[in-house]
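Key result, reporting period 2: structure in, sequence out.
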């Protein structure tokens, strides 16, 4: 390229070169001799001309700034991960891609629309070097609300400890969404549904997670959890004198998921948020048991205990409140758990041109919330990566399995596509 007059060596400082390209001003090195360019190029290869770069000689004032003599080689003395210090200069991405694509037999180069202004540059390299043609197929990149997708920005969040790492469940990485509960088949289906459109749109996370819910709902086993904060003791005045267990399906609509043991006794625990909506003498449904009538409510803000009278002949379809519960029989070991729910990475749906992105990173205290809970004994069998449904609370992925008193069960909430995530 140098010998044919298509490239030249340039030692213009970066700031000045950027200004010249913006204003359409030619570099002082643009018309130097081929011999001078070759000499400088040799020194670049040796690593003794660090102030130089190699530029393609395309245009000075093309309306498309990508065509204004772009840099195609830069010096870099940093050791390479595989080749060490063998090379002292490296090609730019824009220069190497058309060469590699053509050489490796690529027929269609799939590029997001943000590279559209570089397509003429891509074609210029193909033509000048007389390479096999490659068809460039543009499509719009996936944009999601309240999310950074720039690798540079995400790297900074990881490096400065704003997030836990690349697999943080708030990160829009494959590892991140997988850890949060996205399944690979659902991720594949969602991406394929987007298609190769050129239209630039801002997607909501709802459809992303709704695709996942459609696949996990038929197979996620059901468990029960009660939040420990202000949990309410329920005394069943006509309950069984002795505790007993029954085998129940983990998924009433998919018996292949298996069964679980449900314990029944005359004392149960319930969520404060449920009980504070009860009224005296109201008939409710205890899920996996039957109807009961609220006979007494003790305390307020918070309620401390209630008395219930079983009414198993009652019609569960006619009650307004279907309540989850856990037995409080002595000797039973409920599984302590932490339920974690995550927020958005950004506080704004879409950044405008004058927005400084770091001003809109969600503060740590708003990133996620944690609820302490106890889960039914069957949860002891859960393993890291399992996806379950806590009845009436939502879907969860096991991030850390239960390992005794020293390690509670850690569950990450999996959005259902109905929330704003």
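The corresponding designed sequence is given below.
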């Amino acid at each position: 390229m140098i010998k044919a007059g298509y490239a030249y060596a340039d030692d213009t400082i970066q700031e000045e070169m950027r200004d010249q390209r913006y204003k359409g001003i030619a570099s002082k090195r643009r018309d130097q001799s081929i011999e001078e360019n070759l000499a400088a190029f040799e020194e670049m290869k040796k690593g003794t001309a660090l102030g130089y770069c190699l530029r393609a000689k395309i245009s000075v004032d093309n309306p498309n700034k990508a065509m204004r003599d772009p840099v195609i080689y830069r010096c870099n003395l940093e050791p390479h991960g595989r080749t060490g210090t063998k090379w002292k200069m490296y090609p730019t991405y824009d220069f190497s891609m058309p060469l590699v694509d053509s050489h490796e037999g690529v027929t269609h180069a799939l590029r997001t629309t943000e590279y559209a202004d570089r397509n003429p540059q891509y074609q210029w390299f193909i033509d000048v070097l007389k390479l096999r043609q490659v068809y460039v197929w543009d499509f719009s990149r996936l944009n999601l609300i309240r999310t950074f997708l720039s690798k540079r920005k995400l790297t900074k969040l990881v490096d400065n400890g704003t997030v836990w790492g690349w697999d943080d469940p708030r990160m829009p990485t494959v590892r991140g969404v997988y850890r949060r509960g996205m399944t690979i088949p659902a991720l594949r289906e969602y991406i394929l549904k987007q298609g190769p459109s050129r239209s630039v749109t801002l997607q909501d996370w709802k459809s992303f997670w709704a695709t996942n819910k459609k696949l996990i709902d038929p197979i996620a086993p059901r468990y029960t959890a009660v939040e420990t904060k202000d949990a309410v003791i329920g005394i069943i005045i006509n309950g069984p004198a002795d505790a007993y267990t029954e085998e129940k399906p983990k998924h009433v609509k998919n018996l292949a998921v298996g069964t679980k043991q449900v314990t029944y006794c005359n004392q149960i625990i319930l969520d404060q948020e449920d009980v504070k909506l009860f009224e005296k003498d109201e008939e409710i449904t205890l899920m996996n048991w039957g109807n009961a009538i609220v006979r007494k409510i003790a305390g307020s803000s918070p309620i401390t205990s209630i008395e219930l009278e079983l009414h198993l002949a009652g019609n569960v379809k006619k009650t307004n409140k279907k309540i989850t519960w856990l037995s409080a029989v002595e000797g039973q070991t409920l599984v302590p758990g932490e339920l974690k729910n995550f927020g958005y990475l950004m506080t704004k749906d879409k950044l405008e041109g004058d927005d400084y992105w770091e001003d809109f990173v969600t503060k740590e205290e708003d990133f996620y919330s944690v609820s302490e809970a106890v889960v039914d004994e069957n949860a002891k069998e859960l393993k890291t990566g399992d996806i379950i449904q806590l009845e009436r609370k939502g879907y969860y992925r096991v991030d850390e399995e239960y390992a005794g008193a020293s390690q509670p069960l850690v569950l990450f909430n999996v959005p259902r596509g109905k929330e704003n995530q």
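The two ends are 51 Å apart (CA to CA). The longest strand covers residues 290-299. This case is discussed further under Risks and Mitigation.
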